[in-house]
Amino acid sequence: MIGAMIRLFKVKEKQRELAENANGGVPIKKQSAGELRLHKDISELNLPKSCTMTFPNGKDDLMSFEVSIRPDEGYYLGGTFLFSFQVSPIYPHEAPKVKCKTKVYHPNIDLEGNVCLNILREDWKPVLNINTIIYGLYHLFTEPNYEDPLNHDAAAVLRDNPKMFESNVRRAMTGGYVGQSFFPRCI
């Protein structure tokens, strides 16, 4: 039994060597299950026309990418919001880490870019995918939720005075102060 296992190991080692030689001596990187699933998710994406995906580290690094969202309705109409995605090798058993790189006045996104979206936390399930997350982020801009806030001040203004909230969003998106926080232009 042990002899058969050793022969099998040597055959596998020989196959790997042959593959590396055929690849110009470059070791072949084995894809993790997370990379394989992410590749499938990306190939099946059906993004809204107002969303784009880019790979700042090149297409060889699928586990790190950015998504730009340009809402076509609601308070955030005309703004462009950039999100970074970091995907774990154990994806889809762990939700991707998503951060908003654009400083935004929003009840569900804090000033450090942390995002409050239930499917990125307690409601994450392996059957969900990148497309679901992007649609969830897009939905945050068309229907901000003051009931589950990260930015409590923005949530209170949205709840108590929607016209003031709209004015604050416009001021923030055109580059200006809301309260003590400065927001760079995102329109």
UniProtKB/TrEMBL annotation:
Pfam families: UQ_con (PF00179). Pathway: Protein modification; protein neddylation. Keywords: ATP-binding, Nucleotide-binding, Transferase, Ubl conjugation pathway. GO terms for molecular function: ATP binding; NEDD8 transferase activity. InterPro entries: UBC, UBQ-conjugating_AS, UBQ-conjugating_enzyme/RWD. Residues 33-178 form the UBC core domain. The active site is at 116 (glycyl thioester intermediate). Accepts the ubiquitin-like protein NEDD8/RUB1 from the ECR1-AXR1 E1 complex and catalyzes its covalent attachment to other proteins. Belongs to the ubiquitin-conjugating enzyme family. This is UBC core domain-containing protein. It comes from Salix brachista.
